[in-house]
């Protein structure tokens, strides 16, 4: 005999899936795996496993004499739109963030989060059209610094940039905060509210939740999970993080 309660639960889950977008963030470590091999095709296979509508990427090689541009390979193998957000841009090396999207990207901005003489940092800030009515979602992909003072300044800059209160905002990336109650995380929780934080680093045996996904309004963030396939555990020193978000309030 079928359980009516179970059937009803399955129907609600199916309805949520129809109304949800899949979102991911992934520090690809320059496409260099834990085996020391640079393999953008392997990275692309992991991204395809995620089956995400929007993917924020960090540590993306974007060309120059130091390393080839990995973004064309990722774009071609996933069939997604691609936007680069270099934080380092010299003839020898272009390097930084990127966003892949199945959905149309209708605006792109770059936020400079560099701090003093430390490594250049930034955020790639895009508007994604989520339906045929022109509904937009703001997606911010970032990779914060290694110093606590640096991260605090960068988060203040990010929060002050969220000047579109009527537009939902996703903040995703490698936050580089090792401590659960670090000041950087407390600042973000104040703005976005708490969100699930599965461990993503190091990929072989994750101990730290360095990679995060937040959304405002927070009630549209349905769930957050780590993607720990065998290929993902080798392709980078970070595991990807995947979330489902509601397309709109219902």
UniProtKB/TrEMBL annotation:
**Which Gene Ontology molecular function entries are recorded, alphabetically?**
endonuclease activity
Record's keyword annotation contains Hydrolase: yes
Does the keyword field hold Nuclease?
yes
Domain of life the protein comes from: Bacteria
Instruction: Could you list this entry's UniProt keywords, alphabetically sorted.
Output: Endonuclease, Hydrolase, Nuclease
State any GO CC term. Answer: membrane
Q: Name one GO biological process term.
A: GPI anchor biosynthetic process
Domain Endonuclease/exonuclease/phosphatase, residue spans: 24-238
Q: List, alphabetically, the Pfam families matched.
A: Exo_endo_phos (PF03372)
Please give the PANTHER family that the UniProt record associates with this protein: CALCOFLUOR WHITE HYPERSENSITIVE PROTEIN PRECURSOR, ENDONUCLEASE_EXONUCLEASE_PHOSPHATASE DOMAIN-CONTAINING PROTEIN
Its protein name is Endonuclease
**Organism whose genome encodes this protein:** Paraburkholderia azotifigens
The top of its lineage is: Bacteria, Pseudomonadati, Pseudomonadota, Betaproteobacteria, Burkholderiales
């Amino acid at each position: 005999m079928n359980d009516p309660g179970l059937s009803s639960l399955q129907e609600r889950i199916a309805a949520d899936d129809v109304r949800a977008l899949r979102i991911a963030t992934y520090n690809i470590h320059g496409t260099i795996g834990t085996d020391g091999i640079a393999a953008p095709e392997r990275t692309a296979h992991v991204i395809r496993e995620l089956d995400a509508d929007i993917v924020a990427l960090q540590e993306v090689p974007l060309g120059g004499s130091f390393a080839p541009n990995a973004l064309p390979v990722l774009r071609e193998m996933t069939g997604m739109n691609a936007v680069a957000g270099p934080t380092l841009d010299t003839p020898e090396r272009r390097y930084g963030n990127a966003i892949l999207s199945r959905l149309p990207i209708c605006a792109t901005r770059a936020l400079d989060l560099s701090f003093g003489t430390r490594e250049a940092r930034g955020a790639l800030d895009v508007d994604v059209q989520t339906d045929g009515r022109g509904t937009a979602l703001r997606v911010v992909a970032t990779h914060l610094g290694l110093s606590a003072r640096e991260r605090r300044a960068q988060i203040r800059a990010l929060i002050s940039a969220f000047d579109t209160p009527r537009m939902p905002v996703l903040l995703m990336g490698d936050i580089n905060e090792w401590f659960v109650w670090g000041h950087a995380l407390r600042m973000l929780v104040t703005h976005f509210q708490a969100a699930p934080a599965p461990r993503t680093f190091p990929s072989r045996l994750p101990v730290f939740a360095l990679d995060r996904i937040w959304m405002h309004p927070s009630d549209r963030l349905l769930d957050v999970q780590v993607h720990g396939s065998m290929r993902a555990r080798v392709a980078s020193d970070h595991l990807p993080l995947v979330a489902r978000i509601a397309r709109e309030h219902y």
